[in-house]
């Protein structure tokens, strides 16, 4: 059997059904997979991927394999692995997977190391843990790498910081920054699945609830809009004047976290920043509030300080909910240990939106193999964005207009005026 470390191989048939179910809503990736099968652009390319191990990711792995890649997969978060999808990849699709839902920190990093044992020349990361591990502990591999792809905002920020510090080990492609990725995945995917995760974890009614969204970037605006769509009263907190203004003109309450802490019933951080909710905010919160995070790392809510403040911690008052009781009796419910709520308590982004993100990943991988990239953090070529948008529109049965020759001339000229 291929190398692997997954929780329960007996889940593989259920996982197989879920992978195929997701595939039916991923038509763009399916088309790329068909072409890859014929052209084999990744023949013999060894790859390591560190992504949320979900049914949608399984379809990306199938696509890379169809192109000829020898790919191994580990998790990019200890709570996001879907054990059935992980088993299906091993049993049904011959992909070595090292990921167990609920794994501890040591296992998480052991799995990253197992994913690079076959000496890959390409990496695909979601949050940069794979690249930082290679940089810190496997410099021998870094020199042989051709390129890496990065899936999320937080990862791209880290890669740019590494480049600025002269520490970037090999060329990278910022997949997150493609328009067909962040404008859709971060906004609609995170928006819907974050609401889904909060509801699955708590079963709260959103209508009439006072919801606080920290951060009004792509993820924050998606979440705020979806929560409002379900009847919640939504307040946004921000540190960027521009984003705060946008939120205000989009019709949200905008306030500081200090004000919001007194006002809100349910809080969700989506900033990519640390300690966004901290001691001074816990001190002001009402009894029995819910606090979740949907940003990449579990540092947005200061849980260490809450542990210190609480006189009691009721672990697992409900699946994915720990209740902290403060000395004055107020209860603060922390969802999914402050980890990505949409992946820990729900199924992550729906397949239809991952179709676009993973189409960008697959085409960027092909691009990285066919081109010699220089050291730096590269944008996804516009042509890939355009191709993915066109294929998605076609799959949705949407036709759009074409510029007439007269319009093309007009738009390229300056002579005509009033
Ligand atoms: N849950 C998921 O599945 C998922 C999906 C995509 C991205 N992400 C992650 O979500 C996070 C946000 O991603 P994004 O694409 O929206 O990023 P973004 O850069 O577009 O937006 C982040 C926003 O947070 C604001 N911010 C920063 N510090 C803040 C603070 N202390 N208080 C209030 N606002 C603050 C910034 O001004 C910015 O407007 C990242 O960590 C990203 O990796 C998660």
What does it look like?
There is one protein chain. With 418 residues, the chain is α/β, with parallel strands linked by helices. It folds into two domains: 5-181 and 349-395, Rossmann fold (3-Layer(aba) Sandwich); 190-344, Rossmann fold. The protein has helices at 12-23, 27-39, 55-66, 83-93, 105-115, 129-137, 139-142, 153-164, 179-202, 218-229, 241-249, 257-263, 279-282, 303-309, 341-344, 351-370, 382-395, 405-411; strands spanning 5-6, 46-51, 70-75, 97-99, 122-125, 147-150, 172-174, 210-214, 233-237, 253-254, 266-269, 289-293, 312-318, 321-325, 331-335, 377-379. The strands form two sheets. Strands 1-4-3-2-5-6-7-16 form an eight-stranded parallel beta sheet, sandwiched between helices. It has an eight-stranded mixed beta sheet with strand order 10-9-8-11-12-15-14-13, with helices on both faces. Strand 13 and strand 14 form a beta hairpin. Bound molecules: nicotinamide-adenine-dinucleotide (NAD).
Could you give a short description of this structure?
With 418 residues, the protein is α/β, with parallel strands linked by helices.
Topology:
Layout (H helix, E strand, L loop, with lengths): L4 E2 L5 H12 L3 H13 L6 E6 L3 H12 L3 E6 L7 H11 L3 E3 L5 H11 L6 E4 L3 H9 L1 H4 L4 E4 L2 H12 L7 E3 L4 H24 L7 E5 L3 H12 L3 E5 L3 H9 L3 E2 L2 H7 L2 E4 L9 H4 L6 E5 L9 H7 L2 E7 L2 E5 L5 E5 L5 H4 L6 H20 L6 E3 L2 H14 L9 H7 L7
Parallel strand pairs: 1-4, 2-3, 2-5, 3-4, 5-6, 6-7, 7-16, 8-9, 8-11, 9-10, 11-12, 12-15
Antiparallel strand pairs: 13-14, 14-15
This protein binds nicotinamide-adenine-dinucleotide.
